[in-house]
């Protein structure tokens, strides 16, 4: 597969190399306290800037409360302890948190939700992309990750199954550079270059990476290697921050990801249709050539200020472009699926986010904010299908073309107000509300009250209780606007009772949890939740293209329990999580053309398990670090996602264990070299993530087989 990387993404991937020398030498204008490098006042100046940066970081973090929520924290030490370290994809990092379930194509499910995740970097919400299986964000730039679930404060809207709040490295007076290379199984080659540091009032973090291997998507077969599964991925991320004065700064954040994937082949399939000019059996399912490309980029410009009056605020302007392009194997898709569709989806979004905090009294802290976005979504579908009779039987071997193009303009806006109140010692109450409105394929709105409290039972124990009313607008970039009438009397004929106006989801969320510090080294916790839902949003893959389409169930009920534990003492650290979940829904009310009549009828009269529901999920890890040596292990357990007709069954349970060992060396004149050997699925357990059956499920996908990787990282 030949790849063509857009010039912008190629330059972005090389930013650390191109820009870091210039930044190192820069002398930012307009900073009165700045002096020449050899000035006797340089130390005092840097100390003043460092203190200012830390104060601004604290003020920024104070804009985002977590009262009443369930919070799982991952710091830099935890990231380094993972078997793949910084090379761990962000979705694999999140799998270590309680209640997070893995799925194919890198999807994550949190507490019975299909996706519905919100990503924030330094308090700025990153607009969601058209997700397929590429990861737009990279773990390398994360310094800390706070994962919030449950009943969230009023500040958090729209995507509320979980908030992945990423904090980058703060102001660093020293300059650091690093180069990382990973190679191993499946012809894997990954390279990353990083540069971070500061030059007087300017601080920066720049990362560029490249990845290529022969296992880009989970294999549909159980073998060690997949057929036709190569991927190439380029990513870049940058964060620039300029301190304007002792009370304010401006920052620029930007990122881009450009990925190409081959769609893996499954040998031994039997053609379902005949194609004119192709002899029977001449089109082999083991050598098809379907491909998919994904592009995502975003930019956010932020002004932050903290005032002596007790007012802190942050205002961001952002833009995001996202695109997915599926290119079929023209003959192969036709004879095996009855349709070969070249599909392009694009979404462009611009918007504004503002958050403010005001300390009214020692007992009351007010927070307020607003969000506005405008987007344009376009879908282009150039399809080839066969003529068919009313029963769907092929009537001609000569395909005919059907082209359709559509677009959606959308606006989303919301405001919130909340008060963090401390009525007595040890008790914190956060109450507030938000109002949201969406105008895309639907015009809907909602007022959503929130309430959360945390009570310190003792110096070792605390409880949190929360309630949240949620309003989740439909994901514009995942709305299937297929015209049913165009495909009448073809091999892609669809039922006529289709409603493509995906509705906003509305839910009531209740959460209760307790954390207890057993000793200086051991912490345990338990959490229970219940969610009642109207118009539940779900997603499915309803064709060969690995593109997801949204639809609604009329009602849903989701409940579960999570147990967490952690241990940290000296050189040893460990954690363990176990979650029990049950997510059910009934009656498909939008996107019905994606389902068979029998399936629709069954779901309309039964509570069915959601396809992403997994009854039991567990994660655990242990790490030992001594001097320059670190050994670690982690594991995942799942009782199996749903499968079968209308999700009436589930796949067998599985467990995957990973190991790693790292040794660091000082190279005189160069820096610190770290060498890490990682083994993924060390026991080589063969297990299915999906088997190709279930509601909205495409081809089978197997978990990774035993794989070996060597990572070398040179820090200068």
Summary?
It is built from seven helices and 34 strands. By secondary structure, it is mainly beta.
Overall description:
This protein is mainly beta and about 725 residues long. Helix content is about 10%, strand content about 50%. It has one domain (about 5-715): Maltoporin, Chain A (Beta Barrel), CATH 2.40.170.20. The strands form 5 sheets. It has a 22-stranded antiparallel beta barrel, surrounded by 5 helices. It has a 5-stranded mixed sheet with strand order 1-6-7-4-5. A hairpin with a 2-residue loop joins strand 15 (about 340-360) and strand 16 (about 365-385). The model is unreliable at about 1-40 (pLDDT under 50).
Q: Main attributes?
A:
mainly beta, globular, five-stranded mixed sheet, 34 strands, 22-stranded antiparallel β-barrel, single chain, disordered N terminus, 716 residues, Maltoporin, Chain A
Low-pLDDT sequence parts? 1-40
CATH architecture: Beta Barrel
Tell me the helix content: under 10%
Per DSSP, what share of the residues sits in E-state strands of 2 or more residues?
over 45%
Compute the gyration radius: what is it?
26 Å
Q: Name the CATH homologous superfamily.
A: TonB-dependent receptor, beta-barrel domain
Look at the structure and give the CATH class: Mainly Beta
Mean pLDDT: 87
Main β-sheet description? 22 strands, antiparallel, barrel
The count of helical stretches stands at 7
Distance between the termini: 36 Å
Q: SS-based structural class?
A: mainly beta
Count the E strands.
Answer: 34
